[in-house]
Amino acid sequence: MRAAQVTRLDGPLAVEINEIDEPTENGIFGPQILIEVHAVGVSFPDLLMSKGEYQLKPDPPFTLGVDIAGVIRSAPEGTGFAAGDRVAACGGVGGAAEVVGLGADNIFPLPDNLSFEQGAALPMNYLTAQFVLQERGHLREGETILVNGAAGGVGTATIQVAKGYGAKVIGVVSSEEKAEIAKKAGADETVMVEGFRDAVKELTGGQGVDMVVDVVGGDTFTDSLRTLATQGRLLVVGFAGGAIPEVKVNRLLLDNTDVRGAAWGEYAMRRPGYMAQQWRELLPMMASGVIDPPIGAVYDLEDMGRALQEMDERKTLGKTVLRVR
């Protein structure tokens, strides 16, 4: 079968499409569910792994791919799944292939109103958003949140899940094109990254926001802290901007604000059944249409390297998806 593989840690353009053996029902860790993959979501961990810069560092050659959607080929009894089921799934690596084998904890029912491309855009980003907003952020209905990098995959997912919980959302973007993506995802307001601190203060009547979800880091971090209202909290999700910022804790003391880490993968992978619980929380939002993943570019599996290169150059809008079937 075809698979998008890293054979050397030289970045996106070194990704190769190779023929490898299909997985079997008896995996390394025991019986597993086999999925015929229809679509693969392109994710930031894929980009980092292509360079050897992610915390998970498999030895080359290895197959990329975190998020997938497809149809179950076979499933052991007692897993709750059966051949023919439409599913989305999430694993650490190995998804960018024609057939994937996974345990039941990593697989979720895909509602009929969502396409395979949308299904491949869901797991990591939307489960991350749910974790950030509820498990770590304790979002309450009626609160106002600020989303940095609002036009990206995690950003748009955060907007939609926050709207599902009844929050007001302000998105921070770097262009009018990205502002349209964020608004289409459901953002109530958008502001340009240049001067966003003052714009947010104006939009909130000088009060600030209850929560900032920050996937960017870098130079905007301090101004993000300054947009918080009293007892506001800033959720650190990632560093797409490259630089890892530092916090002067006297600012937290003076303003009664929090900075909280929010590493979904580390938390979820250690708790069997947690991702399924999160998915059940999100299913009503999928059914109502609040969750409607904005798909950006759609490429063939052979274009995995190109898709990752565009992500590296910060050209990605919404979620990039690869078609497999």
TrEMBL record:
Alphabetized GO MF terms: oxidoreductase activity; zinc ion binding
Native species: Nocardioides marmorisolisilvae
Protein name: NADPH:quinone oxidoreductase family protein
Cited SMART domains: PKS_ER (SM00829)
Pfam short name (any one): ADH_zinc_N
InterPro entries according to UniProt: ADH-like_C, ADH-like_N, ER, GroES-like_sf, NAD(P)-bd_dom_sf, Quin_OxRdtase/zeta-crystal_CS, Zn-ADH-like_protein
Domain Enoyl reductase (ER), first and last residues per copy: 11-322
PANTHER family: QUINONE OXIDOREDUCTASE-LIKE PROTEIN 2, SHORT-CHAIN DEHYDROGENASE/REDUCTASE
CDD domains: QOR1 (cd08241)
